Amino acid sequence: MRTRDAKPFTLRIIVALCTEVSRRGLRAMLDGLDVVEETYDAGTPADMIAAAERGDYDVVITSCVGMPTSQQDLERVAACGVKVVALLSGVDPESLNEAVQLPADGYLLESDLTTHSLHDALTRLRRGEMPMPASLTRQLLSALRDRDTEEIHPSRLLTPREQQALALLAEGLSNKQIARRLSISEHGAKRHVGNVLAKLHCPNRTLAVALALRDHLLNS
Predict the structure, then answer these.
(1) Reported pTM
(2) Does the domain formed by 11-133 have CATH 3.40.50.2300?
């Protein structure tokens, strides 16, 4: 991964969507933003992975609808230090289920996509936050409210260190940033985050934070 001398830095973005029209349209929006240095057109998951592995890009924007991108593909991209932003077609139950399964660092919603919302999301991502449309957040919290309260069990109680990791997850920090804040190794941070997800029975960070907000775990 390339290095930069000054921050805030601009972003180099891989656009991995299913059709050329959608890729061209999103790239046209991105190319007009001052936070974007360069965009790359990835028409297949293989193109996306190859671009990520070259180490020249910071972010990939992709969709799980139409594009045959698997969770394993995105994990390979994330392992290269590239942040994953999922472009969702809606907040219906099917799209919501797809969203929580992805190893994403942020989300965009097609119906809310404007140059302003795109600029805001990328600026937040650049600061280490997790951008998420308010409508998606509401749907996640609503889904969590509908979960059986019997699922909340003492066995899910977090250790003090896991509680700290959860609080930092809520700030949108990566494993590397959590390790730095807790003065532990990145491997240790990854283990704590994994324990948090397992104890909360959540497939990813987004749902874990939403659950923590619902159950006031961040205030305990």
Answers:
(1) 0.65
(2) yes
Q: Which residues make up the CATH 1.10.10.10 domain(s) of the chain?
A: 147-219
- Which residue ranges does the chain devote to CATH 3.40.50.2300? 11-133
Who's near 27: CB < 8 A, 6+ residues apart?
A: 15, 39, 41
The token pair at 174 is: 């990566």
Contact 181, 142 (CB under 8 A): no
Cβ atoms within 10 Å, residue 10: 15
Q: What is the dihedral of CA 37, 176, 152, 219, to 10 degrees?
A: -90
For 149-158, b/e burial (b = at least 16 CB within 10 A) is eeeeeeeeeb
Averages of pLDDT over each 10 residues, the chain, 220 residues: 54 92 93 94 92 93 71 85 87 68 82 90 86 75 57 58 89 88 88 83 80 73
CATH ID of 147-219, from 3.50.50.60, 3.40.50.1010, 1.10.10.10, 1.10.3210.10: 1.10.10.10
List the strands of the sheet with 36-41, edge to edge: 36-41, 11-16, 59-62, 83-88, 106-109
